[in-house]
Structure formats: structure tokens, C-alpha cells
Amino acid sequence: MRARSLRCCERWRTNSMSDPTVSDPAEFLAQEAAARSALAEIAPRRQIGALLRADPEPDENVFTLRFASDVPGYPHWEWAAVLGRVDAESTPTVLEVGLMPGEGALVPPAWVPWSERFAEYKAQHDDDSDDSDDSDDSDDSDDSDDVDDADSRDDADEDSTADAESQSDGDAESESADEPMSEETSETTSEATAEAEGSPAQE
Fold first, then answer.
1. CA distance 106 to 76
2. Is there a domain that residue 189 lies in?
3. How far apart are CA 57 and CA 63, in angstroms?
4. Domain end (from 66, 101, 136)
5. Does residue 48 contact residue 79 with C-beta atoms inside 8 Å?
6. Which of 2, 62, 78, 68 is nearest to 27 (CA)?
7. CA neighbor of 69 nearest in space, from 48, 41, 39
8. Whether the Cβ atoms of residue 53 and residue 25 lie closer than 8 Å to each other
9. Tally of structural domains, the chain
10. Model confidence pTM above 0.85
């Protein structure tokens, strides 16, 4: 249900024009029965509660009667019947009816145009894509660092192995040089020396 639009002259009100006086709602309140009958066409009568008030509209010949609502799941909502008349001499009649939120009623968020919702969705999607790209780059960098670390460890292991083998060979040669000659080797050496001393020199 929408509020009534202003009359033509009220749109271009000047300082010389006095504010219109609010009509007496008594004549509109007197049409409570008509308002209830109109509401009964869209809702069970048991869901239409007590008359709460008569709200004036911008047009001085229009009032909205508000009724308490007993509709399950709609706390603080109110039934509304808009009554209007042609002039002060006419009898008000029902123009439209509906269920309207009252003070403290639970209402949905304000409607947002599709273009704005799509722009917000697109911006969010772009942000998510940027975050994903940054994450992929970080993962690639971490993988590259892991590979470099593994290569460095392999090179270090190879160098350590080569040093160990070289040291082992050196130790083996040193031990061989330090070992004493066996008795057989000593006797053979002594015999060879004696033969060399006893043989005449070749002319």
C-alpha cells in the first residue's frame, strides 16, 4: 500500500498559501464497519482486531484506519483500510486495504536495484580472484624454495660423502706405512742384501 500523492496545488505551495487544516477523522472513524467488511474480503474476520487509530494522509480528504492484526507470524503488523472522499460534503468510502507493518514489526531489508547488486557481486568476485592468484603465487614460491633447499641438502650430502671417502683412503695409506714388516719379509730382505754384498762386481 502506498501513500497518496499530493494534490497539484500542494506541490507548488507558496508562502502566501496557508497550510491546509487536517480534517476531523470522526467521519472516517464512523465508517469502521465498511472498513472491516472490505478487510474481510482478504482475511478471516477473526484475524482483524480492534480499531487502533485513524492516520491522516497528505490529502486532507483521505485517512487510513489501522486495525490490530492477529495473523500468526506477523507480530506488530496492522490491517489498514484507506478511506477517501471527494470533498467535505461527501461520505468516505474504502479505497484500498492491506496488511502494513506497524512499530516494531519485522520487515525485509530495503530493496536494492539489480544493477547495484550485480556491481557489488562483481566487485566481490574480482576480490576473490585476486586473493586466489596471490595464494597461488605464494604456493609456487614456497614450492620453489623447497626444491632449492632439497638441492642444497643433496649437494651438502655429496660433499660430506666425498670428504669422508677421501679421509678414509688417507687413513688406510697411513696405517699401511706404519705397519711393521713381517718376519718373512725381513728374512727375504736380509738374504737379498747378503747376496748383493757377496757377489763380485761385473767388469
1. 8
2. no
3. 6
4. 101
5. yes
6. 62
7. 48
8. no
9. 2
10. no
Indicate whether 201 belongs to any domain: no
**Residue 153 and residue 112: Cα distance in Å, rounded?**
60
CATH of the domain at 60: 3.10.450
The pLDDT tens digits for 49-72 are 999 999 999 999 999 999 999 888
Residue 59 lies in a domain: yes
Which residues sit opposite 98 in a β-bridge? 80
For the chain, the farthest-separated pair of C-alpha atoms sits apart, in whole angstroms, at: 171
Residues 135 and 90 both lie in one domain = no
Taking alpha carbons only, the member of 42, 40, 102 closest to residue 66 is 102
Residue 100's DSSP bridge partners are 78
pLDDT one-digit tens code per residue, 153-180: 766 666 666 666 666 665 555 555 555 5
Same domain, 97 and 120: no
For residue 142, give the 3-state DSSP assignment: helix
Q: Which range in 45-54, 102-111, 123-132, 173-182 is most confidently predicted, on average pLDDT?
A: 45-54
Range of the domain at 134: 114-173
Cβ–Cβ under 8 Å, residues 1 and 82: yes
